[in-house]
Amino acid sequence: MPYKEKEIEKKYFTIGEVADMLHVATSLIRFWESEFDTIKPKKNKKGNRQFTKDDIESIKLIYHLVKEKGYTLQGAKDIIKGTGEEVKDKFAMVNSLKKIKSFLIEIRQQIP
């Protein structure tokens, strides 16, 4: 059995990387950090933010609620506080379905 190199998984992401993932400005990420308790990146000795995957999932959820669903910041806060786990589960399900859809579209395009 050939040796397969284990893929290195990144633990921390910079604010620039997170902003690029969502195609938003870094200032929006900093603003949301100040508004939502669920975003708590660590800071290194230089004061640079280090976002974990959990932080990124929180930011994606906020993005979904505010930018895609049209909620106000207060509305998004209420939803996250009130039914946080339920919303996160639905959001995770929607993301899984989007990945499946992309995969199926890719397969369809490869069929002559």
Report what the structure shows.
With 112 residues, the protein is mainly α. Helices cover 64% and strands 4% of the residues. Strands 1-2 form a two-stranded antiparallel ribbon. The protein is globular, with a radius of gyration of 17 Å. The termini are far apart. The relative contact order is 0.10.
SSE blueprint and pairings:
Layout: H1 15-22, H2 26-35, E1 42-43, E2 49-50, H3 53-68, H4 73-110
Antiparallel strand pairs: 1-2
Helix pairs in contact: 1-2, 3-4
- What's the arrangement of strands in the largest beta sheet? 1-2
CATH class of the domain at 15-82: Mainly Alpha
CATH A-level architecture of the domain at 15-82: Orthogonal Bundle
Q: Distance between termini?
A: 35 Å
How large a portion of the residues is in β-strands, by DSSP E?
A: under 5%
CATH topology of the domain at 15-82: Multidrug-efflux Transporter Regulator, Chain: A, Domain 2
Q: Specify the biggest β-sheet.
A: 2 strands, antiparallel
Counting helices, strands and paired strands, the structural category is: mainly alpha
Strand segment count: 2
- List the helices and strands in order: HHEEHH
What low-confidence regions span 5 or more consecutive residues with pLDDT below 50? none
Shape: globular
Q: Can you give the mean pLDDT?
A: 85
Number of helices: 4
Query: Residue share in helices?
Result: 55-70%
